[in-house]
Amino acid sequence: MVEKAPSKPKAGDSKDASAASSEPVPMEIVKTPEELKAESDAQLLADIKQNIHFLDRAVATLEGRFTTRALRATASIRKRLNPDILAQALNVHFTEETPRKQSLLEKIGKTSSAMDVDAPAPESGKEAKTFLPEHDIYLSYLVLLYLHDQKQNDKGMSLAKELVQAVQTINRRTLDQLAGRIYFYYARFYELADKLTEARPVLLAAQRTATLRHDDDTQATILNLLLRSYLHFNLYEQADKLVSKAAFPEDASNNQMARHMYYLGRIKAMQLDYTVSHRHLLQAIRKGPTSPASAGFQQAVNKLAIIVQLLMGEIPDRAVFRQPILRKSLLPYLQITQAVRVGDLAKFQETLGQHAATFRADKTYTLILRLRHNVIKTGVRMISLAYSRISLKDICLKLQLDSEEDAEHIVAKSIRDGVIDASIDHERGFMKSRETKDLYSTAEPQAAFNQRIAFCLNLHNESVRALRFPREAGTKDLENAAERLEEERKLAKEIVDGDLEDDDMGEECPRLVGPNILLLEADFWISGEQQNGI
After folding, report:
1. Mean pLDDT for the stretch of residues 155-161
2. Per-chain mean pLDDT for the chain
């Protein structure tokens, strides 16, 4: 065998190898679990401090968007809360040993003496930072969230009572959004303890107070909580009276608006007003959140919307049942929809008996029972389209009715309601269908087109109302522009009269630039023409 001679290294290769060997190799720093936990805790405390800063800016500027940012960032903070972090935050941000601080530390199982992190002392020459009521309510709100997530309902209920009393005694507009959250968890803890009726008087009194204070956030939240309380006990008449007497604020958030539309849809559906109910449910679906965290709300609204649409005589779009978030939960409703679409009463009864527990848990069982008549009407329509003449006995067998008399009554009612175009021969006992007419020769296309136009106009009006602008922001600019224009007119008049020259105007006097000079020149020529008698 012939061995291959080793190749000689080139000059460039030796330089590259020496350079590569001389370069420092970066070393991967592996942190211990204790270091990772310390960094995570420090970041969490920094996030809480940032939200406190947002509350300070909200108080200083009287703008609610900073409070909104703080509450929006609280969703990520909530998942990382633990007793140690809460105790550190309370010791850092509470200025002194107040009773509220001690109570909060006891509820999370901590004491102020056991903590290593204390409130920092103020530096020399700097005044101590003011502890605002917003700080107190927000830190208490964090503790309330922790107790709710840990399912400590007794401690959470007692803390919610204290916070409700504190919010009622403080009349500050910067606390409106925080007060709405406090009332929500107040009702939530009572609902978990199955004592929702005990919280209703407090919520009614708070609703009156919020209306007098023009507190839109709290007013919208409490109104939805009261509707939830009434619907929980099937008190639809009282809920309808509350809706008719209390006006829902227009400046409420989209989440509260979506909840309110869902409750209105449920009330109208039980009152047989399916058209209005379906419109409210569509608005709830459109305004509601679409994140995976809100899957429960989307499922509840779509379940009710499907049943209401079936009661209206329409078939829901199949794409609704194919959404990943809704596919599993809407499977029983898909089977109901299929039974209604083909008019199969046997399949409808089978599905109703198989998923009765699910329908009762969703509180749609009563509405689904009303669909039996729709299934029968659909079956009669299918039979009238398939047969020009059919006996009442065969109709009874196909629809699985009890007797031929029931079939005769159902067919007669369908003819009277305009579901089918047929006639009944009572002596011979059969139904005779008439020839089908051209659909476009009737008023149905016009009605469908009118319904779509009304929907588009309603959507446009709501979109225009949703365009929010700062109140009185444009009025100040107009006032300033009018004052500036008036000063420029006086200055131009003095120049025309010869009282001032261009060199006498200092830097503080406004210069005539842009369209203003055109206005002033027009005034000058008009005054000159008036002097000449033109």
Report:
1. 87
2. 77
Would you tell me how many other CB atoms lie within 10 Å of the CB of residue 44? 19
Pairing of strands 422-425, 389-391: unpaired
- 374 touches 311 (CB < 8 A): yes
- For the record, the structure tokens of 499 come out as 């009282």
Helix residue ranges per DSSP H, 343-403: 345-354, 356-362, 365-369, 371-386, 392-399
Q: How far is residue 183 from each of residues 43, 231, 356, 402, 464, measured CA to CA in Å?
A: 29, 18, 34, 54, 30
**CB contact at 8 A, 281 and 242:** no
The answer, yes or no, to whether residue 105 has pLDDT greater than 90, is: no
Q: Is 363 left (phi over 0), alpha (psi -120 to 50) or beta?
A: left
What region, left, alpha or beta, does residue 390 occupy, with left being phi > 0 and alpha being psi -120 to 50 degrees? Answer: beta
115 pLDDT more than 90: no
**Calpha distance 210→214 (Å, rounded):** 6
- pLDDT band of 504, cuts 50, 70, 90: very low
Beta strands in 352-501 (DSSP E): 389-391, 422-425, 430-433
Amino acid in position 333 = Y
- Tokens 């039980």 belong to 270
Torsion of CA 485, 490, 491, 495, to 10 degrees: 140
CA distance 514 to 491: 16
